[in-house]
């Protein structure tokens, strides 16, 4: 029981070529930058976009197979779709919105009327049953959208950035609720997001889409530790270096040399946490093997952390405390020294 | 007063000056059919729809004789024209298809002189070319298989038509009541109606697109067409000159060529 | 004109606002352009108001009820309402699918079809009436067929009057509904589809309610156009009291003889149509 999809299609500049397999009860997060094809993938699975090559099967049933001229219309797929902007029907009340799918899937008017309030209660929305969507807050609208999608009991649930339209305050609470609902959902779930924290909190597994291709998949911990593209590295906040390893050294692509624990030969990635990068005003003494001189290229304050980008033989982001920032007077001009312990560098095959 | 009226009034004023200089008394000049006396400017003639073709022709003659003067027309049902003249003005000369509507204008004291009958018209039955329905007289218009269009009783030709039908003791159930005489001819030439009662001149104007069936004199109605210059005319000289041309043998010939009858 | 009392303004504008309106010349410019807009609005309102005033000032109010009671007026009014409402109904039934096709389908010659649809708005109605005669008249190709196959003749009949009114009115509905279909968020239809709604259900339960304001506006425009229609009606359907003589034709003929009667008829038509529009608006478009 699972979703097996091989999706090939062209849409404008985007060429989507993706193979995924998601089991029942599993939540797969789809991460990727804008324009990478995340939403396009969801729309294709829902049948809102025709695929040109490939095949989509859900629980063994073929939904689409262009080679065999099979294509189920969106209405004939057991799919629930939560849109980024929810798309609650503005002319219907909350309860009518939730009952819409029940009625469209053949439930009688009275049956739908009776079933919809249960969903509203489950979402804590029973007092808003007769409100129009325009009167709801962002979090309430999101819950109605989820209830509407889940009410017909779909086998495949597609969530397109379900939390992105919410403000930071409600986001956490709605995320917790969503997590509960997803856990109790029996079907297969795909969730598009560009937030790795959301992916970690809600999904069992994630894929990273770039330029219409899957460039990485795995659990969120795996992906966070071993990013395989600058996009993912930036997302999870790591320095990522690609090069050729031999004899405990990496020849960095674009110049530079990095001393690493030995045992890695050939094309490798090296991931370095910014906290492992130390900055000095003078040449440091002691054990660090990787030491070079550079210049401060940028300073970003993120809450109580400060990230300093240093240009040198290898461009590196360092995380320093606010106190260190002051002591080293990094705002002023002049050379800075970068040092990284070889043991702090994660190396894995490219 | 709009811009056009103002310029027309200025023109009239200058004309008056010229007229005074040349003839001394332009108001007494109406016997002159010779348009050589430096007429200029334009006059607007409100004329019955049935006069469309002959008046356009006479206007050509007028322009040929008076290169710097011009005539423009407002053709329509006389009743509507009378209402327009009373309500809005804008006419220099009014040529009506009946006395009733001319009288309405005269009763409002809008005419310079008493109107003059310049031509007459009689009624005819208009039918499709070749008279496919074999209509021979007014009594055939009562046939149920004949679709008849009459002008509405509110317009002169409609009133005359009903007078003629009354004289012939024929009751007609028209399929439509046209708002003017051209609205009777149109459906017949298009084949939508089989017959209608119009002026003889209109049958002639339709050329080979329609044929006429005469109505005997004892049933017919003779329409008299009076015309008169409007008191508030912006260009009475040109208007009067045009009226004189219509009344001249030359003008009358054009009218009789179009099926009208000399008074 | 509503001006907010000066006490509501803080005596000194906040710094940003001062900066925004600070340049004396730009403030003066803004003031001048506002004045220009107000002037234009005034002229436009006067332009619509004065003719109405002219009509109302000359209305013989005492005769209004007598006029309304007279059988010819009542039959003309009745015909006007029946024909214009029928024309509006036909326009909706055929115009909405046409608008849908124009908005949603891509097919060769679509812009040609759209131009064809707007043709009746451009050609003089009398020409439209002649064109209808040439097609649906006794000698017209379609009319001959209708006559032979069904024994139906349209010219000089009430059906003909309805046809003529539909011809001039439907473009207004098609154009308005097409604009509504184009401007609506089509992803609502996607949402309905993912919820299991077939195209017809989606159209009826989602699309139609979402474009309802356009549909009502289009229908109201079409109805107004049909109600006032003169040229095509008189050319195609003729003018026969009790059968094809609608109010505009009656008004035109009354104009031939008695201006007061024409004015009275016009005011009656005006009052009836305004009443219906207001009632419809309150019933179906409370937000407008």
The CATH C-level name of the largest domain in chain C is Mainly Alpha
Helical coverage of chain B, percent range: 25-40%
**What is the fold-level CATH name, i.e. the topology of the largest domain in chain C?**
MetI-like fold
The helix/strand order of chain C is HHHHHHHHHHHHHH
Number of strands of chain C: 0
Order of helices and strands of chain B: HEHEHEHEEHEHEHEEHH
Give the integer mean of the pLDDT values of chain C: 86
Can you walk me through this structure?
The complex is a heterotrimer of chains A (350), B (263) and C (288). Chain A has 350 residues and is of the alpha+beta class. Chain A is 26% helix and 36% strand. Chain A folds into two domains: 231 residues, P-loop containing nucleotide triphosphate hydrolases (Rossmann fold, 3-Layer(aba) Sandwich); 113 residues, RNA polymerase II/Efflux pump adaptor protein, barrel-sandwich hybrid domain (OB fold (Dihydrolipoamide Acetyltransferase, E2P), Beta Barrel), CATH 2.40.50. Chain A is built from nine helices and 21 strands. In chain A, a hairpin with a 2-residue loop joins strand 17 and strand 18. In chain A, helix 4 runs parallel beside helix 5. Chain B is 39% helix and 21% strand. Chain B contains nine helices and nine strands. In chain B, strands 1, 2, 3, 4, 5, 6, 7, 8 and 9 form a nine-stranded mixed β-sheet that branches. Chain C has 14 helices and no strands. In chain C, helix 4 packs across helix 11 and helix 8 packs antiparallel against helix 11. Classes of the chains: A alpha+beta (350), B alpha/beta (263), C mainly alpha (288).
Tags for this model:
heterotrimer, A: 350 residues, alpha+beta, Rossmann fold, OB fold (Dihydrolipoamide Acetyltransferase, E2P), 2 domains, six-stranded mixed β-sheet, five-stranded antiparallel β-sheet, 26% helix, C: 288 residues, mainly alpha, MetI-like fold, 14 helices, globular, disordered N terminus
């Amino acid at each position: 029981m699972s979703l097996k999809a091989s999706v090939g299609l062209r849409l404008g500049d985007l060429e989507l070529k993706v193979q995924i397999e998601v089991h029942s009860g599993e939540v797969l997060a789809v991460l990727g930058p804008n324009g990478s094809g995340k939403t396009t993938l969801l729309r294709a699975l829902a049948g809102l976009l025709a695929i040109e090559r490939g095949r989509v099967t859900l629980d063994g049933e073929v939904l689409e197979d262009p080679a065999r001229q099979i294509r189920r219309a969106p209405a004939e797929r057991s799919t629930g779709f939560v849109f980024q902007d929810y798309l609650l029907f503005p002319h219907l009340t909350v309860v009518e919105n939730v009952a819409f799918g029940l009625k469209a899937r053949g439930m009688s008017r009275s049956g739908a009327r009776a079933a919809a309030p249960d969903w509203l209660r489950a979402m804590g929305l029973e007092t808003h049953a007769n409100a129009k969507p325009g009167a709801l807050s962002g979090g309430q609208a999101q819950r109605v959208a989820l209830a509407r999608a889940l009410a017909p009991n779909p086998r495949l649930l597609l969530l397109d950035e379900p939390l992105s339209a919410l403000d930071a305050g409600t986001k956490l609470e709605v995320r917790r609720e969503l997590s509960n609902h997803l856990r109790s959902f029996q079907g297969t779930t795909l969730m598009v997001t560009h937030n790795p924290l959301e992916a970690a909190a809600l999904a069992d597994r994630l894929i990273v889409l770039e330029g219409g291709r899957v460039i990485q998949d795995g659990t969120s911990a795996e992906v966070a530790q071993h990013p395989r593209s600058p996009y993912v590295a930036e997302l999870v906040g790591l320095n990522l270096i690609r090069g050729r390893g031999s004899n405990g050294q990496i020849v960095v692509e674009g110049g530079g040399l990095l001393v690493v624990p030995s045992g890695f030969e050939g094309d490798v990635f090296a991931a370095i946490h910014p906290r492992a990068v130390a900055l000095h005003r003078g040449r440091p003494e002691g054990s660090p093997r990787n030491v070079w001189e550079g210049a401060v290229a940028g300073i970003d304050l993120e809450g109580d952390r400060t990230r300093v980008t240093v240009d040198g033989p290898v461009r590196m982001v360092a995380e320093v405390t606010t106190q260190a920032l002051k002591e080293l007077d990094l705002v002023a001009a002049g050379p800075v020294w970068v040092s990284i312990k070889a043991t702090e560098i994660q190396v894995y095959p490219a | 007063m709009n811009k056009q009226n103002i310029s027309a009034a200025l023109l009239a004023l200058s004309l008056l000056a010229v007229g005074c200089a040349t003839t001394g008394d332009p108001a007494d000049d109406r016997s002159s059919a010779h348009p050589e006396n430096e007429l200029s400017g334009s006059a607007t003639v409100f004329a019955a729809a049935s006069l469309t073709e002959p008046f356009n022709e006479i206007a050509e003659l007028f322009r040929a004789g008076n290169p710097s003067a011009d005539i423009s027309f407002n053709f329509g049902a006389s009743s509507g024209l009378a209402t327009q003249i009373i309500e809005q003005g804008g006419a220099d000369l009014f040529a009506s298809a009946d006395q009733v509507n001319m009288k309405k204008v005269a009763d409002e004291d809008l005419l310079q002189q008493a109107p003059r009958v310049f031509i007459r018209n009689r009624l005819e039955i208009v039918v499709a070319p070749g008279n496919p329905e074999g209509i021979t007289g007014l009594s055939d218009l009562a046939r149920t298989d004949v679709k008849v269009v009459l002008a509405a009783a509110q317009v002169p030709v409609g009133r005359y038509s009903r007078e003629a039908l009354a004289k012939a003791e024929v009751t007609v159930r028209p399929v439509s009541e046209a708002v003017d005489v051209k609205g009777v001819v149109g459906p017949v030439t298009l084949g939508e109606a089989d017959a209608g009662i119009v002026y003889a001149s209109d049958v002639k104007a339709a050329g080979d697109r329609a044929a006429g069936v005469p109505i005997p004199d004892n049933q017919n109605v003779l329409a008299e067409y009076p015309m008169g210059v409007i008191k508030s005319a912006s260009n009475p000289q040109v208007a009067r000159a045009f009226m004189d041309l219509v009344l001249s043998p030359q003008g009358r010939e054009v009218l009789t060529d179009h099926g009208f009858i000399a008074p | 004109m509503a001006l907010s009392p000066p006490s509501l303004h803080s005596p000194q504008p906040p710094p940003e606002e001062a900066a925004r309106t600070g340049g004396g010349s730009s403030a003066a410019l803004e003031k001048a352009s506002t004045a220009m807009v107000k002037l234009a609005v005034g002229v436009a309102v006067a332009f619509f108001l004065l003719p109405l005033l002219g009509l109302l000032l000359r209305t013989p109010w005492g005769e209004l009820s007598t006029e309304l009671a007279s059988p010819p007026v009542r039959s003309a009014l009745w015909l006007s309402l029946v024909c214009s409402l029928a024309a509006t109904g036909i326009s909706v039934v055929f115009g909405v699918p046409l608008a849908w096709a124009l908005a949603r389908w891509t097919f060769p010659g679509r812009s040609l079809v759209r131009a064809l649809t707007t043709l009746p708005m451009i050609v003089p109605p009398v020409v439209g009436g002649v064109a209808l005669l040439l097609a649906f008249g006794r000698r017209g190709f379609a009319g001959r067929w209708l006559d032979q196959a069904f024994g139906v003749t349209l010219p000089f009949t009430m059906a003909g009057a309805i046809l003529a009114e539909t011809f001039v009115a439907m473009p207004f509905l098609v154009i308005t509904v097409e604009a509504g279909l184009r401007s609506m968020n089509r992803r609502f239809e996607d949402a309905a589809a993912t919820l299991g709604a077939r195209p017809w259900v989606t159209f009826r339960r989602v699309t139609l309610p979402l474009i309802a304001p356009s549909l009502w506006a289009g229908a109201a425009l079409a109805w107004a156009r049909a109600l006032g229609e003169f040229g095509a009606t008189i050319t195609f359907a003729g003018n026969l009291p009790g059968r094809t003589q609608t109010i505009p034709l009656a008004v035109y003929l009354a104009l031939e003889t008695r201006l007061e009667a024409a004015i009275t008829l016009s005011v009656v038509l005006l009052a009836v149509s305004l009443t219906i529009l207001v009632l419809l608006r309150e019933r179906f478009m409370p937000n407008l």
